[in-house]
Request: fold
Amino acid sequence: MAAPKKGRSASAQSRPGRSLALILIAIAALTGGMFASGHTTPRLGIDLAGGTSITLTAKNEPGQPNAINKTNMDTAVDIMNRRVNGLGVSEAEVQTQGSDNIIVNIPKGTNSEQARAQVGTTAKLYFRPVLTTDVSGAAASSSPSPSASSSASGKAEDKATPSSSSSVTPSASATTQGRVVTDALKAGSSPSASSTPSASASASPSASAGVDPAIAKLQAEYAAIDCTDKSVRAKAGAGTKPTDPIVACGQDKNSAGEWQKYILGPAEVAGTDIKKAGALFDTQTAAGWKVTMDFTSGGSKKFAAITGKLAQNQQPQNQFAIVLDGQVVSDPSVGQSLSGPAEISGSFTQTEAEDLANMLKYGALPLSFKESSVTTVTAALGGEQLHAGLIAGAIGLALVVLYLVIYYRGLSVIAIASLGVSAILTYVLMALLGPAIGFALNLPAVCGAIVAIGITADSFIVFFERIRDEIREGRTLRPAVERAWPRARRTILVSDFVSFLAAAVLFIVTVGKVQGFAFTLGLTTVLDVVVVFFFTKPLMTILARRKFFAEGHSWSGLDPKRLGAKPPLRRTRRASAPVDTKEA
Reply:
């Protein structure tokens, strides 16, 4: 059994070039990817590159005078942070200031307008039945109209469908953006029947004498609202409860380029009934981007119930409005009961679809906010601190290299080369992680990279000292390297595991810039293991075959005399005791 083991060991020792080739190919591939992506420098955080600072002030909701409290503010900060900074390393800071303000710092290079929309949007979502709808400012129509039909795939499509109606029950016209909602499980299985226009809509408010004051007020609001005014659109439906009917405006112009206004019934399904949401490109029909929604078990039942009721109505009462923060995002018609995962499709851009899915996924803010101020942050102070930090890092690196050269002499070449490989991998990965996950290099992250120099150098020192210990025991260099490696490997892995565990815990329990330090420390710790296993050890094995190191040159750092090596141990046979022939 000894011979095969020796053969395997010899084979492993004779092919260290494979490991070196592997890590060099990986470096070349990553570097090529960095240049191909066009991101040749790491993305900088707000303290190094500047950016935008937004101050949001919480507003009291009608009927909720004590809504602004620490619990709700902390919840709002958490939701905002997840919206713009899902992995915690993109350097977008969200923190409270005082009792009713939230400060959001967005670094340069981020889409600040998109981020402003993300953090400031309350994202309270409701599904409400449409009682009546018309183009804002249009006169009532009494002409017959085409019916709302379903496509061959079974998707209930939004189309221009004016119907006969009275002056207080305006016609259904072109919908918000031609968007449709379908059951992702049933789409394409059974098309819905066409609906026909009715003479009057029983679900619509009446203008007759003796009408309920609440309905009369709703009618008056509907008649007076001008959805072409941005401020009016933003305030429509403000202060109403989910159980109340509301007057609302479309969030965007409809397919005909006109603004839509609505009277909507009480909310039937809330955003809290959505389990998860995502943005996908419709590759089957090439219809563009869509938002998919998975409901909770309770939400599925509610959605099936309301769509089942609406499917029995005529236009526009067979539509339901998806209302986000008081504005109608979409108002699709329904031809059948829908229960499973649903999708909102239509004229979404990628950004619109991702923003809506992101807000649905992370939930609604517990409070409403207004922008108090938006300021531009300069990077002057951070640049000075970075300059000072880089000088400190350069001095520390120079001292480490000087120590290695004086103490380890020839072995310092291996250590310096390994530090260089580690630095290249760290830089390339930081540059690639910027566009990939939003990683931003800030001052704490720079500190983490500087600390990593010591961690990496410590791994080399452990390995070198193990080799020296074997030489002191009287072994030659090549067997000393192979015997020292298993012992050094265990020590390096344990040390790096502790460092990585500390970085992981720090990343989990902290927020903001400290997470940048923890992330960088964890990344460089993992790279330390990669460099030691795939570069330092194979390079040491190759150099151990060279005469300069193998014969223990005085400048190799492995001179047996300088290390106080013991002479090789020789076994001697013990003198055998005389045998008594008689006893034998």
About this structure: Residues 1-12, 138-209 have pLDDT under 50 and may be disordered. The chain has 16 helices and 14 strands.
